[in-house]
Amino acid sequence: MRWDSLRLDSSDSGAAPPLIERGAVARTFDAPEFRGMTFYEVRAKSIVSRVPEASRMPFCWTINPYRGCQHQCVYCIHSETPILMADGTTKPIADVRVGDAIYGTVRDGNYRRYAITEVLAHWSTVKPAYRVTLEDGTKLVASGDHRFLSDRGWKHVTGAEQGPEQRPFLTTNNKLMGFGGFAEPPKESVAYRRGYLCGMIRGDANFSRYVHAPTGKVSHQFRLALADDEALLRTRDYLITFAVLTTEFEFATGTLSRRPIRAIRSSTRTAFDAIEHQIRWPRFPCRDWLCGFLAGIFDAEGSYSGAWRVGNTDPEIIRWTTRALDALGFSYVLEPVVKANGLMVVRLRGGLKEAMRFFHTTDPAITRKRSIEGVAIKSNANLRVAAIEPLGLELPMYDITTGTGDFIANGVVSHNCYARNSHTYLDLDAGRDFDTKVVVKVNAPQLLRAKLASPGWGGEHIAMGTNVDCYQRAEGRYRLMRGIIEALRDAANPFSILTKGTLILRDLDLLLEAADVTEVGLNVSAGFVDKSLWRAIEPGTPAPDRRLDACAAINDAGLRCGVLMGPVVPYLSDSPAQLEAAVRQAAEAGAVHVAPIVLHLRPGAREWFMQWLREAHPELMPRYAELYGPGSYARKDYQARITGQVRELAERFGVGRQATPRGRDAARPATPPATPPASPPAQASAPPPAPHEQLTLL
């Protein structure tokens, strides 16, 4: 057997890419079609993925048992750029890792708000560097292709108003969105620790000396009880550095409405005297002490919920709080005293910008008090672009993919990178790594069975082949799809498959069994039947006529298979004769529907495709610039024309009229519309995209 040559690859070239977890097994095969390729076998943690809400896809869940390597993305920023983590601290993007919780943003009605998200991918490359300077002094070093959110939408660092490099780009008329550059964190010096202990203990601890009458015996009591372990443990650890040992205990048990409270204490005179010495007011406080004091008093008595406040009844504590704020350049107001106990409240001015400067300058311990989740990104920070300068050198650049599609880089909203998963659509490789390195989730069937059996799973429709073709050549070796289909069949869970691979015919027996118990939708992707064009832009896929033969075989077996005419490549596969040939052959294959999808040039893929077009068809460059402009989609009139032509051709050739329903589909009309509805129900049988949806070239 040709697969008997399977072997472990221990060479450097087989080292797992950064996106792959440690422990991945790298394998190569001697079979001719796999020479030069490396397969990284990983045990994934999950297999069913939710489709981003911003997507136009008419389904919510997808499975991708394979994934191509994504190292050659063009969106990158410099390695030292600080990223806002979910706990309110910052970390250089080079040190961020997959699985880290960070801040991104989400749309909420008319506003965009900060939200905690997860890092899904992280990688590096080397790119020419540009420095973007904002009027408040914030500096960002990024590649020319990177995008930031401005007051006029997402914009690349560099671009042009016309020609092949036409795209939205930053100018000095733009203002970026965010709160501005991160402040330098404090040094955890002896003075900082003393300041923190002073603020925390004076603000919230029971620290007192008692004289017992009539014996005159003196007792010493130190106790600090907090619901937030972060501040309690910091206080305990700082006291240890000053040779003060405390005992930790449970102060109050938690209830349904109240968190448990832990405490530390000491009642020895030695410890009491040492603490008293450390928290005394300094005659000449240094900056480190002031930062520590503000962090401590905020952890003890502060809050932030859109406005920063610190309150206390001790006038001396309030005086020191305002003195420290003055010294660090913060503006504040003293709110009127309204409570009988004389509570005085200091409120910081300047909105989110100044609150974030406070958090990073002083570094309080309590994460929940630093949270900005749900806060609108609008800000009074002066983030107008002052200059964009090429640095004249190439630098190491990093980028990440996140659950929200963006992240906060040095205080401004930055677009993340999306992998160019061209295997699914145009099969135009995104660099040698994508063609030669494939991640294989070897435990996909087992993960799926566990997911389908979990109490929280509601039997929603699952789409496959929407990101990476699940019937690519490696499936012949790994046979993951058989286990996946068996799991879906056994759970009677509706699903659909989109593929350019003919290997789907291997699993006809399982697909027939599944169709008897649930809704199964199948679609073959064939945007054109011109073999010369296929060789030029889809050389790694089966020929279009072989895909249509697979469609015919599926329909002959009694299943319902449609044809996704994607992508329709403007000026290369959209002539009346080409469209007619594609629809006629789809009809001859018994396609139950035909849906055209015009090429979608998503940023990142746009640059790659335009480079290919410039080399292969330079005469089309002006026409593409006119058709797409600076955006990702072809003009609506062009999309409507293609959709109308295909609909007329489908009616002429009788697409769908000979469809033979099977199983749960038997009660459905035998003649579905030539073009499926734009928004099918979640349980629909493999709905292809709406007619005006454009195919994404990632």
TrEMBL record:
Gene3D superfamilies assigned: 3.80.30.30, Hedgehog/Intein (Hint) domain
Pro residues: compositionally biased ranges: 670-691
Chain residue ranges for the region called Disordered: 651-698
Keywords per UniProt: Iron, Iron-sulfur, Metal-binding
Single biological process term from Gene Ontology: intein-mediated protein splicing
GO molecular function: iron-sulfur cluster binding; metal ion binding
Top-level taxon of the source organism: Bacteria
Domain Hint, chain residue ranges per copy: 74-243, 380-422
Protein name: Radical SAM protein
